[in-house]
Write a structure and sequence with these properties.
single chain; two-stranded antiparallel sheet; mainly alpha; 110 residues
């Protein structure tokens, strides 16, 4: 029962994230299409799978390799003492390679 609930929840936010965010790994920049989209995962930036705001601000699309790497780094971090301050919590998985995308596209379109 718990597994099926988790799968349903995951399918919902994955579909949302794929509609909101580009089909590009936010870490390595690998581009995905319908043929290899199954290798693109949705990562929760705060590592809380129950935190799924509709605007997608807690999600980033990562390839399976970068996603595994992110979770390994997070596990190592917790094993070494975890996150102690709010500043440290904010530093986890906050890189946004698309932050300037709108401006770049507008500039290119001129």
């Amino acid at each position: 029962m718990a597994r099926s609930d988790a799968e349903i929840r995951q399918a919902g936010y994955r579909a949302q994230s794929l509609k909101i965010h580009p089909w590009v790994c936010a870490r390595c920049g690998r581009v995905f299409d319908k043929d290899n989209l199954s290798e693109l995962t949705v990562h929760h930036k705060d590592h809380n799978h129950d935190n799924n705001p509709a605007d997608g601000c807690n999600w980033e699309n990562l390839c399976v390799y970068c996603h595994d790497n992110e979770h390994s780094r997070y596990t190592d971090h917790l094993a070494a003492g975890g996150m102690n301050t709010e500043a440290e919590r904010q530093e986890v998985a906050t890189h946004n390679p698309f932050a300037q995308l709108r401006e770049m596209l507008e500039k290119k379109g001129q």
